[in-house]
Amino acid sequence: MNIKSYRDIYIFIEHHEDKLHDASLELLGEAVRLKENRTNLGYSVIAVILGAPGEEALKELGYRGADQIINIHHESLHSYSTEVYTTLLDELIRTDKPDIFLVPATVLGRDLAPRLAARCDTGLTADATKLEFDPEDEHSSLLYVTRPAFGGNLFGTIINETKRPQMTTIRPGVMDALPIDEHRLFTIEKREVQPETIRDSVRILEVLPKDHMAIDIAKADIIISGGRGVGNNFHVLRECADMIGAEVAGSRAAVDEGRIDKEFQVGQTGKTVKPKVYIACGISGAVQHMAGMEKSDYIIAINKDPDAPIFGSSNIGLVGDVLEILPLLTQEIRSYRERPF
Ligand SMILES: Cc1cc2nc3c(=O)[nH]c(=O)nc-3n(C[C@H](O)[C@H](O)[C@H](O)COP(=O)(O)OP(=O)(O)OC[C@H]3O[C@@H](n4cnc5c(N)ncnc54)[C@H](O)[C@@H]3O)c2cc1C
């Protein structure tokens, strides 16, 4: 493999009915940052999107940082198929020879990337949280990919010196998307797919949408999160959340004990959140939990143990019983709201 013939940064774009997935837009932003940090490579940022998205969605990719958008185009590609997507992307990688290929670590991305890496005979660093070019050599395109290891107790940096592309999946919510800039210049290339390539041994009979009222805690401005210390009293958190327009989330211990659904779990194996305010109630502050919320703007912790690690990372720490403190806080807010002007 002549790795010098590989160039550019490719990003796999996930989308659902023309709505671009935030995690892919975050990768676009990160790719632009990488490109600008090593302009001497002359790399472009190339967004790859399968299916038949509308023009607006394609343009948004350009406005958000892509120099080129490649649309592998066919109506039937709107539903994800592991086999078909792998075949088409493998083909693209063989013809285009990208040096770097980034995939969001969403459910779809986690399914696609390992199979694609195996098909292309390259390595995959999964679930990365940080990317940078070789800090020792300003002409190198070798990617240093950092990811949590050993249950989040250590961070490992992985390099792929011998195979291309350098493929990695990146956790949603860790990188920053660029704002829309309609003055950016970009090209859109549609590559039509021959129907025989799309033949699939799996037939999708029905796609059931998730409850449209379901809340995505990753987008919440205020989160009240409960841990084992809350026990079966999550209603106390919900009452306060209703009062201040917050969403309720939980630690893995709370999820394991069945107090709250897994989709509201914050942390390494849950969601990464970045709210303006994160109120941690009865949560000890294990590294795996902190990994999912430490980028919150303002952290308030309530814990009866003054030595709980969570206090080391919080802006305000309240030592005491959450079941006494939180109802008082709710009551105070209610009184404030109801006061006569
Ligand atoms: C590979 C791996 C992945 C993991 N992923 C995640 C993850 O994504 N998210 C996650 O959260 N964890 C994760 N964990 C688990 C993590 O290590 C901790 O076990 C978990 O975060 C602990 O949850 P907790 O803080 O609610 O419970 P505990 O650690 O048991 O803490 C409970 C806290 O509540 C306090 N408390 C008790 N009663 C009260 C009260 N009445 N008032 C106030 N405070 C009270 C206690 O002082 C204590 O600090 C993972 C672990 C591994 C190994």
Placed side by side, the strands forming the largest sheet appear as 7-11-6-1-4-5-12
Distance between the termini: 75 Å
Largest sheet: 7 strands, parallel
* SS content category: alpha/beta
Mean pLDDT: 93
- The low-confidence runs, each spanning 5 or more residues with pLDDT under 50, are none
Please give a structural write-up.
This protein is of the alpha/beta class and 341 residues long. The protein folds into two domains: 3-198, 3-Layer(aba) Sandwich (Rossmann fold), CATH 3.40.50; 217-338, 3-Layer(aba) Sandwich (Rossmann fold), CATH 3.40.50.1220. Helix content is 26%, strand content 26%. The chain contains eight helices and 17 strands. The chain has helices at 22-37, 55-63, 82-96, 107-119, 234-244, 252-256, 287-290, 322-338, and strands at residues 7-13, 15-16, 19-20, 45-51, 68-73, 98-104, 124-128, 130-133, 143-149, 154-158, 166-170, 187-192, 222-226, 247-250, 277-281, 298-303, 316-319. Strands 7-11-6-1-4-5-12 form a seven-stranded parallel sheet, sandwiched between helices. A five-stranded parallel sheet has the order 14-13-15-16-17. Helix 3 (82-96) packs across helix 4 and helix 5 (234-244) runs parallel beside helix 8. Bound molecules: flavin-adenine dinucleotide. Flavin-adenine dinucleotide (FAD) binds next to helix 6, helix 7, strand 16 and helix 8. Residues 151, 227-229, 251-254, 265-270, 282-284, 286, 288-289, 292, 302-305, 308, 321-323 line the site of flavin-adenine dinucleotide.
